[in-house]
Protein: Host specificity protein
Organism: Spirosoma agri
Amino acid sequence: MKQNIVKTRLKNGQPVLGVLSNSPDPTVAELCGFSGLDFYMIDGEHSPVTTAQVLDIVRACELSGITPLARVRSNDPKLILQYLDSGVMGIMMPGVNTAAEAEALVQATKYPPLGRRGFAPTRSSDYLLGAMNQGEYVAFANEHTLILPQIEDREAIDNLDELLAVEGVDGFVIGPRDLAMSMGYYDGPGHDEVKRTIAGIVEKIRKAGLIAGTTAATGDQAKALIDRGVLLCLNSFAGLLKSAAGDFMKGR
C-alpha cells in the first residue's frame, strides 16, 4: 500500500487536478503521470476497461508518479474489492442518491472495524511480503483510501443533509451533466438554475467539512472553482486532448 498523496493534499486543504479516462491502455495513464497531473481516474463506468486491465493501469500510474483512482460502475462490494486489491487508492461511485447507498460504499471500501472489505494477500498489501504486517496494513489502508460518492440526481440533492452525515465519506464529486438532465435540462449544465444548484451543493459540502469536487474543462475553470472552495477538479482525457490539439492547431 502506497501513501495516498492526493488524499493527504486534500485533507490539508490543497487542490488536486486530474483526469477521468476510459482508455484501457496503461500507456495513457503513464503519460498523464509524466505530464504532472495529480490523479488518474480509471473510468470503470463509461468504458470497456476490465478488472484484469486495472492492474496494469495502476502499475503505470505508480511508475509515473500519479495517484490511481477509479470510478466503479456499480456499488457492488466484490467489484469494488477487485479494484482496491489491484492498488486503486480511491473510489468514486456514480449515482449515489441515499445515505444507505453511501454507507454501503463505505462498508465495501473499508476494512473492519470501519467496514466489511474482505482481506487477502493481494497486490495492494504487497502480498503481505512488504514491511507491514496484516494489522498495520489494514489500519494504513483504511486511513489512505479515498471515498467519493457522486451527486448526479435530484434525489441526491433532496437527501444531501443525510448524505453529508455518513461517516467514512471523504467528500462528494458533482456530475454536472447528469445532474442537469435530472433537472430537465437535456442540453447541458450551462443553465443558471443548474449553476446555482451546484454552487449551493458545494457550499453545503464545504460547511460539512468535506471535500467538494467537480469537472473543469479548462485551467481557468479549475482556478475559478478552486477559488470557490472546490478542491478536486477533473477533466476527461478526451477533453484535455481536444483542448491541447485546438491550441496547437492555432499555429496552422
Summary: The mean pLDDT is 97.
